[in-house]
Design brief:
The chain has about 400 residues and is α/β, with parallel strands linked by helices. It has 15 helices and 12 strands. Bound molecules: pyridoxal-5'-phosphate.
């Protein structure tokens, strides 16, 4: 696997510049065109496999975005999609067929859980869900027809960290394709390909775009896999719009700066919350109390911008605290410059049964923060004030 040749701070700004000539535009032009003129029918046939045929197949602005993300991940190629879910579903439909089997960790994005457990069985593809950090259980779940090992790290909202080396080794040993949802990790904080993961996916809606103004998905990998996925994308049709692509390109230029600031702010926020009397527990990969703290430090350059905490109180108290925040806006999603707060059991994990949530360790007391790039002093002040909405009390039993 190709290693990144430039530092992420440089690749983020220049990866999206595709200037072939002098005096060209510094900002990438938007090819807001569904089709491209050819001189004759021989040429028409030649261009079908390029980004100048028809935009469902490819588009020059999309290509710039794709090259930028591939460079950031240090991978051969990338493909963009209309959403993160579009990237995941298309990839899996491209690479698996009826009779195939998936091993997936239990803590994954709710939409993917739904796709694996409710949609894929209709096509004859079964999934076994395993404990996120139990690699023996992963190994035991692998069958002769297993094709894919699917992981996500850090996880939502519990921020568990997956061991990339173990995941890649297991996949190699059993000849499986390994795929990671690296949305929370960002290409600034982690490069799963360096550890041998085959496919790296991002909901570009989040950190890559960084301004809560578009939805998109990106998958990166080696050319041979990408070609199959590209072929499927042209059929399923969930390509990205060139205008959204341009917004993504603009967002990528500040990715490294934004994430560096979010890492710093989130670390301070996590430390503040950890010593607060009304907080029972804080989940953040770079806190010493985090169960995978050592692995996180080994494979991540920063702890990321997501912090989850559990209030010392009830689910109702968690709701009250989230509504009392002003700087942290109550909204689902994450990864933008602005700080957001959400209650996982009411948003990202609302479609998951209480029993499954319990297995995942997602509690009603959980509050998920997407820490933005504002002043950390203001962020902490907002949290301090909002936590006053939680009544002081002796420890309440879990689940109350
Ligand atoms: C948001 C998200 C997705 C889905 O991405 P969309 O762009 O909303 O389709 C998948 N995985 C994770 C971790 C996410 O946060």
């Amino acid at each position: 696997m190709k290693r990144p040749t430039r530092h992420p701070e440089t690749a983020a700004v220049h990866g999206a510049a595709d200037l072939e000539k002098n005096n060209g535009p510094v900002s990438t032009p938007i090819y807001q065109s569904s089709t491209f003129e050819v001189t004759d029918n021989d040429e028409q046939q030649r261009v079908t496999a390029t980004d100048r045929y028809y935009t469902r197949w490819g588009n020059p602005t999309n290509t710039v975005a794709e090259r930028a993300v591939a460079a950031l991940e240090g991978m051969e190629a990338a493909l963009t999609f209309a959403s993160g879910m579009g990237a995941i579903t298309t990839t899996i439909l491209a690479l698996l067929k009826a009779g195939d089997h998936i091993v997936a960790q239990r803590d994954i994005y709710g939409g993917v859980t739904k796709f694996f457990s409710q949609w894929l069985p209709r096509l004859g593809i079964e999934t076994t869900f395993v404990d996120t950090n139990d690699y023996d259980q992963h190994a035991r779940a692998i069958c002769p027809n297993t094709r894919l090992l699917y992981v996500e790290s850090p996880t939502n909202p519990t921020l568990r960290v997956v061991d990339f080396k173990k995941t890649a080794a297991l996949a190699r040993q059993h000849k499986l394709i390994s795929m990671i949802d690296s949305t929370f990790g960002t290409p600034i904080n982690q490069h799963p390909a360096e550890f041998g993961i085959d496919l790296v996916m991002h909901s570009g809606t989040k950190y890559l775009s960084g301004h809560a103004d578009l939805t998109c998905g990106v998958i990166c990998g080696r050319l041979q896999l990408m070609e199959q996925i590209w072929e499927t994308r042209t059929t399923l049709g969930n390509c990205m719009d060139p205008h959204a692509s341009w917004l993504l390109i603009r967002g990528l230029k500040t990715l490294a700066v934004r994430v560096a600031r979010q890492n710093e702010n989130a670390q301070r926020v996590a430390e503040f919350l950890e010593q607060h009397a009304k907080v029972r527990r804080v989940h953040y990969p770079f806190l010493k109390s985090h169960p995978q703290h050592d692995i996180a430090h080994e494979q991540m350059r920063g702890g990321g911008g997501m912090v989850t905490f559990e209030v010392e109180g009830t689910g109702e108290d968690a709701r009250r605290a989230s509504e009392a925040m002003h700087l942290f806006t109550l909204a689902t999603s994450l990864g933008g410059v602005e700080s957001l707060v959400s209650i996982p059991v009411l948003t990202s994990h609302a479609m998951i049964s209480a029993e499954q949530r319990q297995k995942m360790g997602v509690t009603e007391q959980m509050v998920r923060l997407s820490v933005g790039i504002e002043s950390v002093e203001d962020q902490i002040e907002d949290l301090e004030r909002a936590l006053e909405a939680v009544p002081a009390r002796a420890s309440v039993p879990v689940g109350a």
